[in-house]
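hey so u asked for the seq, here:
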Amino acid sequence: MEVHIKGKIDAQRKHGQVRYTRVLTPAPDAYSRPQTIEVRSKGQLGSTGDEVAFTAKLGGYARKAYRATDKDTGETSMVTPVDLVLDVLEQ
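ran it, structure tokens below
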């Protein structure tokens, strides 16, 4: 469950002892948009605008379930959203 990430630091923020870094990844081709991800780390990965490469652990958690109604059929079902988290593997 490890991923290698390469991109440019777009923004950073800190909450408690955790640093959140938003990274723009390279677009796959000239007609695509770059992907934007956010990773968590203990230390600073670089300055805004720096190009970085690192390995992160992929994780996630389920949030509170809610009831959703299909507009076409009126059928209701329970939906449980899942949030993915990327934690930088510190070296």
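The mean pLDDT is 95. Strands lie at 2-15, 18-24, 36-41, 51-62, 66-69, 76-79, 82-88.
lmk if thats what u needed
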